[in-house]
């Protein structure tokens, strides 16, 4: 059967649009039966729990513990998957009358996964059966200890299986080599839910809200059984009576009827994760299981506070990590960055930021107080198997665990350099190509007039969206741009209105950086792709297209290599790069002339640029006085490679512009004092006026230019004026403002945004 025939069959038998039929086929769903199961999962989409390895042994041992009133301890994990896994099994065991408690490891004292000291404590405290959730397969020694002391262990886990499995009573794992489950990609909470289903001899629908949270939070593929669990779980969330979840949603200002997979991923999961990242995750289980509304609100408020703290820590450490990477003069295929006493709980998020901005697998480590041990987290790219890269070098480490895309580890600080070398070598072995960027999968090209509320509602049938089932991205044709503008307090969001023959459609791009005006001015030449969405405002539902990527003028960006070496500190090695050096500022060059090789090619000043010169590698040493100068340089010199150091000789972006109050304070002092000796008393004056010295000097320069002060041989006197003078007309004011804009665009932007800036300058 041809592709067209399959499409037509799906369309007719399923009663769906041609577009939805095409999208199903692209997902490998080619029969009406498969389409029905995908679009309308039911109880049959959830597999028999006894298809999992050792499920019968696990149930038998747990039931025996319940019958004998043995003390059961659930050993969980501190992330959202681990907390929901613990809550699921805890509630199920309570339902069957178990004597059950739980233990959530402390990230900072216990570390990830099984911990020998904790196992010893559980044994000493009278635990008679340990049931692990979302961990356990890496605890060979811990399980052996418990078993040798008469305490059985049932493992339920979904993480990578080590070569040597623990000798537990049962190992319930969807990828166990002795009995592979039909759907191997269950989350930890999914495995716990299967155990709960077996114990309760039914599908416990009241637990599905927790299953949805853990599965989405752990970024599991949303296909097959996971798709059914999350779809049913979202329905359960919209009707949840859990006081803890209701309190979390209230604090996040989310309407319960609007809950979907994005709510979980961007609101619920980060809040639950913040507990284990900043303090201890055990209160998370209490939050999810308590029936006390006051207690739930109390914990939820604590979660909100910790989540805010998490964001601040991530921002601070990310900034420091990027700075350390910029200072490293060696080019690596894998980022390894370490800092003193960085908060361990957020290192995984920081590593994700590094991956996002640099396109490289990244490890972020915190060196402990005593300076001997570095602990941290790693995040990878799809093309690099991080677990395999490190697993063969466990001799370097004191602890390690993880999977393809993420890991946690610790090692002696002295071995960080060796780990860096190992990872770079493993990247070469795996033939990691950093020039290959992840590409957006464009589903279809559709006309603007094909977009409708009915189409958007139909596309929602493909939800829940997530890993392996992404939200459809479209390109669009046959429209005219009606209007365009910038939005937001910082004017960093772009909006335009497009129209075919029918109603106009809003097109939105968030966080576009500093080139928004360029998009506004050239909106009709933007080629973009995006997702379909709706926006409800004052009771009216409007269609929106959320831009995922775009290009201006549909011009191919020149294939140049950009070496981002931006630095606020110059070193001799930076000035020994092969290439032709350019300086905007002759003063900067005069201070550095002695550091160059004798045969170095150097150009100082735009006026010395040749007409349409050509070089292999253009090395831009210092920061330009304004963006126009930077654009002139890039368009007057033809180059295949550009190395940007952009040393800021006298930076202004850290202090900015004086406030209106500061201008007024200096003016009032100036007109009321005569013969102020600036050479002698400038520092005292800055302290007295409580204004930074460089801002004071700048302010006096502006006042001198507009005639507010007179300066003769270093002595200043005020000169009152009745004329209305705009300080912004002063040459110094305009120059600083333009320098400030240049520094904000060129020095403070992240690497990806900076590279886009250079490309846009070249194509303009």
From TrEMBL:
Where is the secretion signal located? none
In the UniProt record, does the keyword Hydrolase occur? yes
Ranges for domain DDH: 71-215
Q: Which residues form a coiled coil?
A: none
Alphabetized, the UniProt keywords read: Exonuclease, Hydrolase, Nuclease
Q: Name one GO molecular function term.
A: nucleic acid binding
- One GO biological process from the UniProt record? DNA recombination
- Where the record annotates domain DHHA1, the positions are 336-425
Q: Which Gene3D superfamilies match?
A: 3.10.310.30, 3.90.1640.30
Domain of life (superkingdom): Bacteria
Q: Does the keyword Metal-binding apply?
A: no
What transmembrane ranges does the database entry give? none
Specify one Pfam family. Answer: RecJ_OB
Q: Which SUPFAM superfamilies match?
A: DHH phosphoesterases
Q: Where is the RecJ OB domain?
A: 444-549
Span of domain Single-stranded-DNA-specific exonuclease RecJ C-terminal: 563-755
Q: What family, per the record?
A: Belongs to the RecJ family.
Q: What is this protein called?
A: Single-stranded-DNA-specific exonuclease RecJ
Q: Which organism is it from?
A: Liquorilactobacillus mali KCTC 3596 = DSM 20444
């Amino acid at each position: 059967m041809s592709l067209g025939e399959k499409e037509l069959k799906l369309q007719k038998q399923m009663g769906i649009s041609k577009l939805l039929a095409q999208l199903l086929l692209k997902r490998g769903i080619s029969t009406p039966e498969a389409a029905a199961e995908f679009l309308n999962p039911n109880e049959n989409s959830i597999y028999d729990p006894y298809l999992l390895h050792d499920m019968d042994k696990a149930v038998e041992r747990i039931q025996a513990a319940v019958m004998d009133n043995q003390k059961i301890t659930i050993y969980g994990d501190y992330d959202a998957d681990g907390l929901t896994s613990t809550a699921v099994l805890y509630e199920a065991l309570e339902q069957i009358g178990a004597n059950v408690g739980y233990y959530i490891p402390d990230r900072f004292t216990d570390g990830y996964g099984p911990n020998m000291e904790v196992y010893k404590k559980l044994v000493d405290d009278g635990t008679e059966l340990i049931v692990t959730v979302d961990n356990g397969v890496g605890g060979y020694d811990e399980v052996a200890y418990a078993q040798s002391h008469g305490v059985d262990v049932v493992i339920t886990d979904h993480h990578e299986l080590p070569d040597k499995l623990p000798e537990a009573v049962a190992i319930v794992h969807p990828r166990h080599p002795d009995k592979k489950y039909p759907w191997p990609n269950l989350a930890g909470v999914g495995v716990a839910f299967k155990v709960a289903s077996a114990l309760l001899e039914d599908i416990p629908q009241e637990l599905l809200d927790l299953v949805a949270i853990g599965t989405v939070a752990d970024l599991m593929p949303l296909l097959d059984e996971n798709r059914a669990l999350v779809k049913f779980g979202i329905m359960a969330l919209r009707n949840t009576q859990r006081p803890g979840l209701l309190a979390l949603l209230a604090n996040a200002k989310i309407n319960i009827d609007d809950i979907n997979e994005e709510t979980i991923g961007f609101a619920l999961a980060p809040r639950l994760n913040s507990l284990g990242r900043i303090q201890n995750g055990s209160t998370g289980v209490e939050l999810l299981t308590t029936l006390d509304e006051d207690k739930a609100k109390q914990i939820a408020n604590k979660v909100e506070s910790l989540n805010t703290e998490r964001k601040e820590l991530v921002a601070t450490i990310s900034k420091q990590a990027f700075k350390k990477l910029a200072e490293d003069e060696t080019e690596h295929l894998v980022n390894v960055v370490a800092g003193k006493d960085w908060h361990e709980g957020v290192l995984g998020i920081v590593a994700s930021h590094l991956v996002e901005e640099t396109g490289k697998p990244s490890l972020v480590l915190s060196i402990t107080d005593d300076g001997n041990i570095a602990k941290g987290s790693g995040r990878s790219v799809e093309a690099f198997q991080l677990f395999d890269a490190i697993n063969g070098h466990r001799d370097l480490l004191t602890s390690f665990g993880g999977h393809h895309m993420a890991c946690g580890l610790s090692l002696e600080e002295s071995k960080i350099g060796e780990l860096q070398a190992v990872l770079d070598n493993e990247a070469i072995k795996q033939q990691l190509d950093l020039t290959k960027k992840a590409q957006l999968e464009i589903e279809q090209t559709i006309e603007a007039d094909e977009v409708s509320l009915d189409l958007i509602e139909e596309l929602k049938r493909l939800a829940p969206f997530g890993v392996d089932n992404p939200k459809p991205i479209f390109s669009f044709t046959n429209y005219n741009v009606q209007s365009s503008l910038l939005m937001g307090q910082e004017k960093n969001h772009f909006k335009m209105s497009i129209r075919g023959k029918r109603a106009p459609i809003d097109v939105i791009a968030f966080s576009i950086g500093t080139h928004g005006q360029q998009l506004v001015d050239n909106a009709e030449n933007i080629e973009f792709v995006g997702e379909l969405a709706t926006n409800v405002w004052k009771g009216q539902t409007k269609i929106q297209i959320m831009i995922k990527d775009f290009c201006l003028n549909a011009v191919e960006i020149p294939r140049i290599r950009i070496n981002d070496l931006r630095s606020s500190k110059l070193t001799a090695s930076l000035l020994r790069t092969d290439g032709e050096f350019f300086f905007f500022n002759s003063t900067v060059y005069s201070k550095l002339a002695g550091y160059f090789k004798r045969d170095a090619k150097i150009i100082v000043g735009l006026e010395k640029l040749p007409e349409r010169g050509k070089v292999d590698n253009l090395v831009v040493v210092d920061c330009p006085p304004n963006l126009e100068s930077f654009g002139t340089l890039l368009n007057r010199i033809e180059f295949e490679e550009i190395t940007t150091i952009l040393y800021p000789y006298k930076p202004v972006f850290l202090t900015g512009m004086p406030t209106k109050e500061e201008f007024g304070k200096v003016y009032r002092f100036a007109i009321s004092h005569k013969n102020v000796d600036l050479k002698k008393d400038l520092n005292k004056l800055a302290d007295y006026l409580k204004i930074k010295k460089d801002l004071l000097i700048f302010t006096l320069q502006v006042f001198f230019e507009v005639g507010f002060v007179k300066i003769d041989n270093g002595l200043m006197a005020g000169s009152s004026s009745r004329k209305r003078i705009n300080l912004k007309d002063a040459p110094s004011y305009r120059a600083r403002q333009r320098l400030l804009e240049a520094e904000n665009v060129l020095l403070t932007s992240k690497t990806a945004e900076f590279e886009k800036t250079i490309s846009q300058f070249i194509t303009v």
